[in-house]
Write a structure and sequence with these properties.
heterodimer; A: 382 residues; Butyryl-Coa Dehydrogenase, subunit A, domain 1; Butyryl-CoA Dehydrogenase, subunit A, domain 2; 3 domains; 4-stranded mixed β-sheet; 4-stranded antiparallel β-sheet; 11 helices; 15% strand; B: 262 residues; alpha/beta; Rossmann fold; 9-stranded mixed β-sheet; two-stranded antiparallel ribbon; globular
Amino acid sequence: MEFVMNEKHRLFDKMLKEFVEKEVKPIAKDVDEEERFPEETVRKMAEYGLMGIPFSEETGGSGGDMVSYMLAVMRLSQACATTGVVLSAHTSLCAWPISEYGTDAQKQKYLKPLLKGEYLGAFGLTEPDAGTDASMQKTIAVDKGDYYEISGSKFFITNAGYADIYVITALTDPEAKTRGISTFILEKDMEGFTIGKKEMKMGIRGSSTCELIMDKVKVPKTNLLGRLNKGFSVAMKTLDGGRIGIAAQAVGIAKGAIDEAYDYVKERKQFGKAIASFQNTQFTLADLETNTEAALLLTVQAALLKDQGKPFAKQAAMAKLHAAQNAMNVTTRALQLFGGYGFTREYDIERMMRDAKITEIYEGTNEAQKMVISGHMRKERG
Amino acid sequence: MNIIVLVKQVPDTTEMNIDKETGTLIRKGVPTIVNPDDLAGVEAALNLKESHGGKVTVLSMGPPQTASMLKELYARGVDECFLISDRAFAGSDTWATSKILSTAINMLDYDLVIAGRQAIDGDTAQVGPQVAEFLNIPQISYIESIDDYKDNTLFVSKAYETYSVKMKCKLPCLITTLSGLNTPRYMHAKHIFNMDAKEISMLTNEDLKLEKSVIGLKGSPTKVFKTSVKDVQKDTVKLRLSPEEAAQKILDTLQKEDGGQA
């Protein structure tokens, strides 16, 4: 991606590599084994301006762009996919919709501390019966005059329990289905708002994934995000951007797996020589490197289009689809190069393979991405 | 407190090889880094500024590409960077370099000058002390900790091989820092993205106005007679001993080889 990088990107990449090497990589294994949310890393990320990368300094951000943000999620995920998704959910799914649709007061109260990393953010759209078909929402917000009373539950919410601010969707006009959904900003301490069951997951085990339970939560009218009944569009636009983050995470996981395999094959000897000297090994790595570069370029394209203010939803879906499939393929084939050792928990490669799987599922499954892409094709071609 | 830090861009010697024919370092293709002892000096300066206020200025002498390192230091939080660069300075040894650096320092306001103990490419440890001599200010070298600063006095610990000495010095003074002094902070995202607002000030000999006889190869009294590569002997024995035990061991070994003559 050198061809799109300016001096700042290069310097930022250098900073990220140094940060990841010293702060993220050494604890990645423990974070997974102990299913431990990397709070100390998130604090340090805040200290160095990583929690508000693609937002202007006036809004409290660091003044970077989407390409820089993409680099950050990628570098973090190269060592630890858990840390990568904490940043992606916070930035793309919580801070972004507030910066895009929030009032000045909401930006002052919520966005500024989010971008400084004083608050951690989360996003709640998915419900037990509303997954890919997000229109089947049951969470309801009743207009009580001075406030909304929100009741319902959200499922599989990343950063839940550790986040301070939650952007959630709820029905404000149940008859109107997707045209009756609105978006709200919730604070963790609001009465009736609790964190439910924590999911025990296959991968990204340090990331916190829980249910949100809302029992008649009184939400001030000033916490409506965007226009009334326009929440479905807010959520869909938010997910468009989020896909760049997850694509970057998937590229990072693939790069990490190639790094691990590349080092291993130089050491491992069979038939009297390092397995790196076998053409099968070299060709496998050449395939993985090429496909990962293609995934990276799709991701860079989506990020760059967003930076340029051009439509990017189709490109983001393609980037996410390809990068996720690639991460699964790369980690599986890289693990194969390790033979039996790769199947043991002594090496990081098995964690990477487990982590890769979620990128094919969350923020839109592979199939959901194909729905988005084919939808765009129909619009383009009639 | 106005602090000036002297910083050198060096090849990353951990990724370096030596040309056995010529006995010189192969610099081609080797990545450059901020000299580790100097980076500790920058961190120490930033810490002092954060606790006591003031300004951190970095001075570096080198070819124009040194600018990339100075940008990295801006990203770590320093306030101003000067690059001292002129073809006339090429070939300067530590004496000429110290002369050039001290002339530049004298053009600026300072209370404290910090230099790294030594650069990993030359390992002379001469520039810091020589600059202090040219500036005619007191110096404390080999600083392993900065303990306090009050009443215009700096309290530090100076490292010796097996012990350290607590010292204090009134400002202005010069200290040389060891890389173990602290853990340098990372570059900050905001400083990186705000880089356009920062400029590197260039100083050439037109600004310093030094006689040709005291700079560059001509102004350098050092004459390199020969460099050679020392071969590591394969039968080296590694032992972990205290300094006293090590001295005894060496003595015993020599006596044995010498047939008890030593």
